[in-house]
Amino acid sequence: MAYERVIQALADPTRRTIFERLRRGPLPVRRLAEGLEVTRPAVSQHLKVLVGAGLVHVRRQGTSRIYSVEIKGLGELRQYLDRLWDDVLGAFEVEASRESPTERPGSTKGTQSKKRKSRKGSNSRRGDHGQR
Q1: For range 20-36, the mean pLDDT
Q2: Residue 127, CA distances (Å) to 116, 118, 131 in order
Q3: Terminus-to-terminus CA distance in the chain, angstroms?
Q4: Strands of 64-69's sheet, edge to edge?
Q5: How far apart are CA 75 and CA 81, in angstroms?
Q6: Rounded to the nearest 10 degrees, what angle do helices 13-23 and 2-11 cross at?
Q7: 3: burial class by Cβ within 10 Å (0-12, 13-18, 19+)?
């Protein structure tokens, strides 16, 4: 299950920050490391994990390595999340169908019953006991 590696890779806040920076476009390590509270070698290690998870692609350009988001790497994660979402919606639908109409929010059936009861109560106070 490749999505587990993706989730583990993105669980680290530094790796998420690096990945977010790559969303804007390809960057070399030195640019990715700017402003981070970790060293360039540490950024390289984080990139190695992201590459291993299939989230980041690396290519050589002269003496530099340029990193970019690997779109295909997000595919399995997205499929997993879509299945999860479908399961949650399915469970919600089953639960919603178990409720009776009077229990559903916005149902008018329960509201009408309350109105009838209040009318009878108000009529009996006037002394005509609901007769017209």
Answers
A1: 95
A2: 17, 15, 9
A3: 73
A4: 27-28, 64-69, 56-61
A5: 10
A6: 100
A7: buried
CA 48 to chain centre: 26
Query: CB burial class (10 A; 0-12, 13-18, 19+) of residue 58?
Result: middle
Annotation: CATH topology of 2-73: Arc Repressor Mutant, subunit A (1.10.10)
Cα–Cα distances (Å) from 58 to 2, 68, 98, 101, 127, in that order, read 19, 7, 52, 57, 87
Q: Tokens in use for 32?
A: 């990715």
pTM > 0.85: yes or no? no
- Domain coordinates in residue numbering, the chain: 2-73
- Please answer whether residues 19 and 8 qualify as being in contact, where contact means their C-beta atoms are separated by less than 8 angstroms: no
Across the strands, what pairs with 25?
none
Question: CB under 8 Å to 5, separation ≥6 — which residues?
Answer: 52, 53, 54
Q: What digits encode the pLDDT tens for the residues 90-117?
A: 888 888 888 756 655 665 555 554 544 4
